[in-house]
């Protein structure tokens, strides 16, 4: 399927989605719809084992929502826009496949929020992050007030949200917003290297593991531990578990079949 606002490539089981509205890849309703279509297709494709999301060009991952589209919307139209973006963000967060945000440049507002939906975040040393909505007289509406505090803690999240200032990649790593900072020229190489590592594991086990973390974090500890135990039994009952145990005992690499 061809797209107008994103590029999609698949190589050796690794899918790469590139936000493609240069020079700064602003997020509009069409991009969210196309991203939703791509994510749905990739999640259903058994040959795809990991997904990377990045931005085109050298300037930005995504420098926020497309203000030129938003400024003339009525409240009802804005609500519909938010529904589309929320659906897409939830799709990415809940994919069975592991997802990596390869953040090449600016990740501001909705761009930062989009990165938060991914499981892991790699940033180039040129990347900058921020949630500047307060400077426009609004607040984040794509998960910034909810996903960010869960990731880096309430106090640090409030600092970013209340001040609306940008931080660089080094500071983002220090506060836990990104997993790792790499040289700009090596970003995609490192993202694909990480994706290949994830692709080597049981897709079934990774999906169960991801669901355990994503859903369990919103439960109380007692219910979350019970949820984890049930998911452990689900993974333990799989063919992949038997292959993993056999490979360990036989001192060889496992060959998982995602069952």
TrEMBL record:
CDD domains: crotonase-like
PANTHER family from the UniProt entry: ENOYL-COA HYDRATASE, MITOCHONDRIAL, ENOYL-COA HYDRATASE-RELATED
Self-association and partners: Homotetramer.
One annotated GO molecular function: 3-hydroxyacyl-CoA dehydratase activity
Record-level GO BP terms: fatty acid beta-oxidation
Known EC number: 4.2.1.150
Record pathway: Lipid metabolism; butanoate metabolism
Pfam family, one: ECH_1
Entry keywords, A to Z: Lyase
Protein family (similarity comment): Belongs to the enoyl-CoA hydratase/isomerase family.
Catalysed reaction equations from the record: a short-chain (3S)-3-hydroxyacyl-CoA = a short-chain (2E)-enoyl-CoA + H2O
Protein name, per record: short-chain-enoyl-CoA hydratase
Coiled coil segments of this chain: none
């Amino acid at each position: 399927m061809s797209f107008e606002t994103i590029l999609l490539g698949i190589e050796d089981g690794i899918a790469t989605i590139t936000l493609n509205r240069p020079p700064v890849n602003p997020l509009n309703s069409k991009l969210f719809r196309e991203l939703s279509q791509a994510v749905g297709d990739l999640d259903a494709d058994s040959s795809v084992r990991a997904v990377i999301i990045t931005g085109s060009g050298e300037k930005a991952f995504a420098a926020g929502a497309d203000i030129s589209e938003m400024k003339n919307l009525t409240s009802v139209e804005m609500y519909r826009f938010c529904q589309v973006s929320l659906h897409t963000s939830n799709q990415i967060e809940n994919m069975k496949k592991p997802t990596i945000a390869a953040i090449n440049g600016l990740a501001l507002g909705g761009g930062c929020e989009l990165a938060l939906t991914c499981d892991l975040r790699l940033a180039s040393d040129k990347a900058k992050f921020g949630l500047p909505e307060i400077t426009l007289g609004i607040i984040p509406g794509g998960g910034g007030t909810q996903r960010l505090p869960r990731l880096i803690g309430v106090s640090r999240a409030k600092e970013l949200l209340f001040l609306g200032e940008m931080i660089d990649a080094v500071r983002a790593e220090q506060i836990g917003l990104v997993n790792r900072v790499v040289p700009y020229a090596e970003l995609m190489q490192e993202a694909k290297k990480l994706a290949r590592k994830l692709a080597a594991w049981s897709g079934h086990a990774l999906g169960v593991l991801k669901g355990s973390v994503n859903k369990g974090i919103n439960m109380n500890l007692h219910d979350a531990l019970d949820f984890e135990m049930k998911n452990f039994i689900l993974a333990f009952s799989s063919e992949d578990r038997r292959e993993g145990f056999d490979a360990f005992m036989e001192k060889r690499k496992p060959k998982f079949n995602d069952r």
